[in-house]
Amino acid sequence: MHEYDLLVVGSANADLVIGLDRRPGPGETVLGSDLRVHPGGKGANQAAAAARLGARTTLLARVGDDAYGRMLAEAQRDAGAALAGLLVGPTDTPGTVGKDGIRVPGATGAPEAVEGKDAPTGVALITVDAAGDNSIVVSPGANARLTPDDVAAARGLFQAAAVVSLQLEIPLETVAAAARAADEHGARLVLNPSPPARLPEDVLALCDPLVVNEHEARLLLEAQSLSDDPEEWATALLGLGPRSVVVTLGAEGALVAGPQVGAEVTDGVGMVRVPSPRVQAVDTTGAGDAFTGALGWRLGRGAGLEEAVRYAVRVGSFAVTRAGAQESYPTAADVETATGHAPAQGAEESAR
């Protein structure tokens, strides 16, 4: 049995959110709402979503030795994730943040340090206008210091994980190193290329699945002329080399494509549309991360891809009924109560 159902390698940010009636023009100042600070970052969101569902999970990420870093560590711990992979500041190595959480600068046994010096926690500056549209500026901070050396130092985490989940809010060379480490240790790889970027062919070939929304699919396939047919996107994406593909379709659910998917298979590949429950959406922030975290967890527990996507769609649909990102994520009991479906009990080991 693996120690972790899911190892998430990715970003951890403090989301600083201000509401306003309208965005300012050049040189203009406007008044906004009180500042709200939330834990965020695609990696931290996915780990928190999986942990709240009951997954044995940990996050390999780098935060600053500052107040935002401590907030993010506490949010992971509160969600139920292990802190074994959380790195602090520019030089910390995996495993030095224990069960008691992130160290406090100046505390007994901790080195004296200036808050956030050299590698402050990543921050997303978010403004939301009266129509609900947002504008986001991200300062990567410590996320940009997560390196292939950190991946190598975290070898034990990769050995202990059934599934590894990646996104692209950390350096691409680190993403590639993590994908190869997952393959080396026999872990299944889930990769969401967000924000979209060109990936090495050998990394694409390890994705099982590659998870994209319409925007990401079109950017990855920018050289191709595409219709509005998600099945066409999935076929084209499979042509890039991943073992399987999941296209998320918002309120319409998701499309699953790959070997042994569905009843009708053409050239070894099947496709299935998975509908989403009808809900009243309140806030879609972080819903895609909830979907991917749930997907990784179910795969890590031995579910087949189609079954895992069906569960992840229910988790994502629940998340949009609450405001915020991590604070909107459901427990397994929430999902069962809302949809009347409990996850099937899969094998403890994931199948490649």
UniProtKB/TrEMBL annotation:
Q: Report domain Carbohydrate kinase PfkB positions.
A: 6-80, 117-331
Alphabetized UniProt keyword annotations = ATP-binding, Carbohydrate metabolism, Cytoplasm, Kinase, Magnesium, Metal-binding, Nucleotide-binding, Potassium, Transferase
Catalytic residues? D289
> Where, subcellularly, is it found?
Cytoplasm
For region Disordered, the annotated ranges are: 329-352
For this protein, the Enzyme Commission number is 2.7.1.15
Keyword presence, Electron transport: no
Question: What are the BP-aspect GO terms?
Answer: D-ribose catabolic process
Cofactor(s) annotated in UniProt: Mg(2+)
Q: Does the keyword Ribonucleoprotein apply?
A: no
UniProt pathway annotation: Carbohydrate metabolism; D-ribose degradation; D-ribose 5-phosphate from beta-D-ribopyranose: step 2/2
InterPro entries reported for this sequence: PfkB_dom, Ribo/fructo_kinase, Ribokinase, Ribokinase-like
Binding residue positions for substrate? N13, A14, D15, G41, K42, G43, A44, N45, E169, D289
What GO molecular function terms would the record report?
A: ATP binding; metal ion binding; ribokinase activity
Q: Which residues form a coiled coil?
A: none
**UniProt cofactor note:** Requires a divalent cation, most likely magnesium in vivo, as an electrophilic catalyst to aid phosphoryl group transfer. It is the chelate of the metal and the nucleotide that is the actual substrate.
Q: What class of enzyme is it?
A: transferase
Quote the record's binding site residues for ATP: N213, T248, L249, G250, A251, E252, G253, G288, D289
Q: Where does K(+) bind?
A: D283, T285, A319, R322, G324, S328
Summarize the activity regulation: Activated by a monovalent cation that binds near, but not in, the active site. The most likely occupant of the site in vivo is potassium. Ion binding induces a conformational change that may alter substrate affinity.
Q: What catalytic reaction does the record list?
A: D-ribose + ATP = D-ribose 5-phosphate + ADP + H(+)
| Family membership noted in the UniProt record | Belongs to the carbohydrate kinase PfkB family. Ribokinase subfamily.
What name does UniProt use for this protein?
Ribokinase
Q: Where is the organism placed in the taxonomic lineage, from the top?
A: Bacteria, Bacillati, Actinomycetota, Actinomycetes, Kitasatosporales
UniProt lists the gene as: rbsK
